[in-house]
Please model this.
Amino acid sequence: MDDIDYSQFPELGEVLVSKDVLHQTVQSLGRRIANDYTDRRPLLVCVLKGAFVFMADLARAIPFSVEVDFMAVSSYGASTTSSGVVRIVKDLDADISNRHVILVEDIVDSGLTMNYVRDLLLARGPASLEVCALLVRETVPHVDLTSLRYLGLTIPDDWVVGYGLDTDQRWRNLRDIRRWNVVDETPR
Ligand code: IMP
Ligand code: MG
Model:
């Protein structure tokens, strides 16, 4: 992927977050979590699919054993804007009651998905629940940012791909995060 010829892919715009900045950001989030959870064993919950790359790096940035689990949700309806009502496509394997859960999200956009998933997990009686999001939009209408304990970077209101984030399931495997250009193209 380092040798990718970007001129072949006009849909990939400029780098908004480089892989070096991603690395530093994830290391620093890992250190903060490690400091806060010295006497607790966290369960990292990945919201698929977008958070899978971030969580893989985050888990390895924490210098003690953590457990991981995965859930997948999708917004109801085909609208591109989040409806705020999400359906569980894949539920957790773990029973989270009395566990110290960290919900790991790729990006908080409107915040509706995060709020919904957080309420759903809270109803299962975890010992504690915090949210760790790699990205948040500059303008987040629905989120009280104090509820977002671990936050990586703030980005502008552009659609982005890479490092787990997709457009139509594509380009999750980019090492950095790039602006997505809408181009007239036939599907590859
Ligand atoms: P929200 O409910 O509006 O906060 O939507 C959050 C979800 O939308 C994220 O978990 C992502 O999967 C997706 N999303 C939001 N913005 C982007 C983006 O710029 N690129 C890729 N996915 C995005
Ligand atoms: Mg997505």
Notes: Residues 50, 82, 105-114, 159-160, 165-166 surround inosinic acid (ligand 1) (CB under 6 Å).
